[in-house]
Structure formats: structure tokens, C-alpha cells
Amino acid sequence: xxxxxxxxxxxxxxxxxxxxxxxxxxxxxxxxxxxxxxxxxxxxxxxxxxxxxxxxxxxxxxxxxxxxxxxxxxxxxxxxxxxxxxxxxxxxxxxxxxxxxxxxxxxxxxxxxxxxxxxxxxxxxxxxxxxxxxxxxxxxxxxxxxxxxxxxxxxxxxxxxxxxxxxxxxxxxxxxxxxxxxxxxxxxxx
Length: 190
What we know:
The chain is 40% helix and 17% strand. With 190 residues, the protein is of the alpha/beta class. It has one domain: 3-Layer(aba) Sandwich (Alpha/beta knot), CATH 3.40.1280.10. The chain has a seven-stranded parallel sheet with strand order 3-2-1-6-4-7-5. α2 (37-50) packs across α4 (71-81) and α2 runs parallel beside α7. The chain starts with 9 loop residues before the first helix and ends in a 7-residue tail after the last helix.
């Protein structure tokens, strides 16, 4: 072995990953209004990689839900997800449906969004019972779901660009949550 080591083959990687399956489940993900099936597939890949067990893809109304459940749309989602859609429970639903489910749970909904009240994700203790809410590629989280969130976090950016791809932001949030969980700095539910 030299330098950074030898790259693992597929079987070695699979064996290594199956050892991590007993880790605590990562936050549920609510993806509000994603427009591209590829991003939906990437969200499923990220969810599976981080250990999230549940993803809700939220649309504004029943007509949009039908569009997202059409065969061709599902085919594109599955292609981007690369079989992870079989390991993560996911559903396409309306905003009203996901808001109704929220009432039944003791979760902390965290908007991954730049708002006038958002805090730096790296300086914010994230709760164990977090649910990450992400928004669409152009306009972010709808006001209806943003109002349902108890807090907002943002990723500090150092260039002139004011945003990044929603799936990249989700990856950072999920693995920051996982890092805090591993460090023991995650707050227990209150």
C-alpha cells in the first residue's frame, strides 16, 4: 500500500457498508416541489447513503402528484437513484398530506434555507429527531412548509454565488447531522 491506499472493489465496499447498517437512522427528508426527476433520484441516493429511512416528495396539489407518479417520471427517478429507491421508503404527496403527518410526530422540522432567521449549520446543534425540509430548485421551500418548520439553517458560502444545488446542500446537512451524532453533540429530543 502506498500513499492513500488501494481503492476498494465492489464486494469490499459492499461488506464495509453493510457493517454500518446498524447505525441510528438519519433524519427524514421532505423535498418540497422538486422539479426534476433526476434531483429526486439523487435525493434518494443521498438518503440511503446517510441512513435516512423516509423521504417525502411534496407537490402543491393532486395534479402535480399524478405528474410525478407517471411511469416515465418514475423511470428517470429510478435511473438517478441507482437502486437506492428500493432501500428507502418514499412517497409523492401533497403539502396538505405531509403537514397532516407532522401533527402526529414529535419531530423538529428544520428548513435548509437562507432566511432572515437561519443560522449557520456548522454552528448549530442539530437535534436527534430532526427532519430536513428542502425546497425546489428555483424558489426554495414554499411559505406553507417554511411556516411549519421550527428553525432554519444555512450553509455558509464564501463566493459571490448565493446558492448551490439542492442535492449538494442536502448532502452537507445530512452528513453534518451524522458528524454531530458521532461526536455526541446532537441534542436529544426535548
